[in-house]
Write a structure and sequence with these properties.
By secondary structure, the chain is α+β, with helices and mostly antiparallel strands. It has 3 domains: 78 residues, no CATH class; 73 residues; 137 residues, Histidine kinase-like ATPase, C-terminal domain (Heat Shock Protein 90), CATH 3.30.565.10. It contains 11 helices and 7 strands. It is an enzyme of class 2 (transferase).
Amino acid sequence: MVGAAALLACLFFILDLQLPLGVANAVLYSAVVFLSAASQYRWLPIGTAITCSLLTIMAAPFSPRVPGLPAWFEWGNHLFSLFGIWTPVMFIYQRRRTELLLKEVNERLEQGVDARTADLAASRLALERSEEQLHTLTGRILTAQEEERRRIAQDLHDDVNQRLALLMLDLQTVDRQIGSAPAEAQEGIRNALKGLEELSDDVRFMAYRFHPSILDDLGLKAALQRLLDDFSSRTGVKALFVHQPLDHQLDKTTSTAVYRVIQESLSNIARHAKATRVEVEVTVEDEGLAVVVRDDGRGFDQLAIDRAEGGLGLLNMRERLLAVQGYCEVESNPGRGTTVSMYVPLARVAT
């Protein structure tokens, strides 16, 4: 590139010697300056402009004159060519300055983007850790809640209900011993026995609501069948339980989570769905336990529920399943019923 610029400058110098002094042909040297700008040397355009200016001045005394033209016009027009030589230099260095400023701006912008990206990544990581800690804490709270429910249910069954049973036995003994007592006294004792019997039934039902002992004694399948039977008798809604043989024995935490989510689903159906039929399907897949709860009720606008981030019941269902590495999905349309699908990996299942 330097050699081409030098050759072109020599050609223009020879041309300058042949043309009259009054012709501003030296402006052609600007092409040589532009050509030198393509070089990797940043100083070369200035060096080229100085060289071309010297060649122009050196050629002036040897250039032919045009008869009749004043000397000042010839020299002025010739020296005006210097403007054409140095204008490209100013253009080139202004452009390089602009490119340098743009490069600096781009570098600062990239640094800002990198810093912002790092901040966002750190914030995302912190958020993920916070969510993980929140899910862990929620799982521990739910586990502690279930343990407390189990303890209360056991106390109601083993302590309060047993004491009520003993009290009923005592009243029955008294009833037999006062056979000759007035009818009013006997009727009072019978009413007391009836009240105690009803209270005992209420305590047993309360204990069952706190924690169904059948879940621990006979497993998830029997507990769900009992839950659906109670739901059907209480609401009048036909309930169908479809299941595969559960070859895997679910651990206590997973069984409780699945049971509570199905229980919450049935509770929502009883309160809101106005359904006539409910189906609970439990299947064992390759790597997990899949449960589907369907109803033929009135359904709801799922988009509105999603925008509202769901209700407390749905949030509770999802948190329970997250605690056992599962998940829950809800599909519904107005007038077309609701389907609740849940999945629990078999990694949480003890064989």
